[in-house]
Amino acid sequence: MEIIIQPSAEAATSVAARIIAKLLRAKPAAVLGLATGSTPLLLYRGLIAMKLDWRKVTTFNLDEYVGLPPEHEQSYHSFMWENLFRHVNIAKKNVHIPDGMSRNIATFCTQYEAKIRSAGGIDLQVLGIGTDGHIGFNEPTSSLSSRTRLKTLTRQTHRDNARFFGSADKVPHHVITMGLGTILEAREIILLAFGAKKARAIAATVEGPLSAINPASVLQWHPQVKVCLDAAAAKKLKRADYYHWVYANKPDWQQY
Ligand code: PGA
What we know:
CATH architecture: 3-Layer(aba) Sandwich
CATH class: Alpha Beta
Number of helices: 8
Strand content: 15-25%
Order of helices and strands: EHEHEEHEHEEHEHEHEH
Bound molecules: 2-phosphoglycolic acid
Low-confidence stretches: none
Helix content: 25-40%
CATH topology: Rossmann fold
Mean pLDDT: 97
Largest sheet: 7 strands, parallel
Number of strands: 10
Distance between the termini: 16 Å
Shape: globular
Radius of gyration: 17 Å
Structural class: alpha/beta
Strand order of the largest sheet: 1-10-9-6-2-3-5
């Protein structure tokens, strides 16, 4: 894991944006895995401002609420079109977001995995992290080799997401999410986390034991993970000095 600690969320995001821009310039038909939530908003704003060419890009989103139609304002379909896709020249046919209205979720999930494979796999996956260490909606005790499937949100995540819905009773209990095994197959991963409320989950992910109780710790298995943090999210890391030292001493060819 490469731990990149920046003074602010803006600075941490711009490192991530530069890495993604470099990929899209080198590989115009790249396949991106995308995330929702408050964390990637700055990233999407930054990528829009960079005026990159998205014509040949394919995207797969991590997750979606079950029971919300795509046009619902809190669906992740709405989120992605509102915050990224309608501002760039992506082809609608290249956008993939789990269908929360699917009548046969198990079949849908198998087909979603097949579509990722037939697109050539995900080149770069963007992740946020939940306060309980979830990535996608892989809640604690998710199988470390899980695939795209139906999950039930924890009470904590349900509460955390109530802020978007106005009240907790409007938050769906079920979601479709790529699995941890699905995420691990991405060729490169960028995990973003900002703010003190993510510090515990980040410390457990980077320096804790690999354990399904903190699902993001599975990223320790992956050979190409960059963790982009602001100072507050990095606060509980015991080896922060080392991560700063590594970043400050990167050879020129490794700079982002
Ligand atoms: P947030 O959510 O970006 O809104 O903090 C992250 C997550 O739950 O994965």
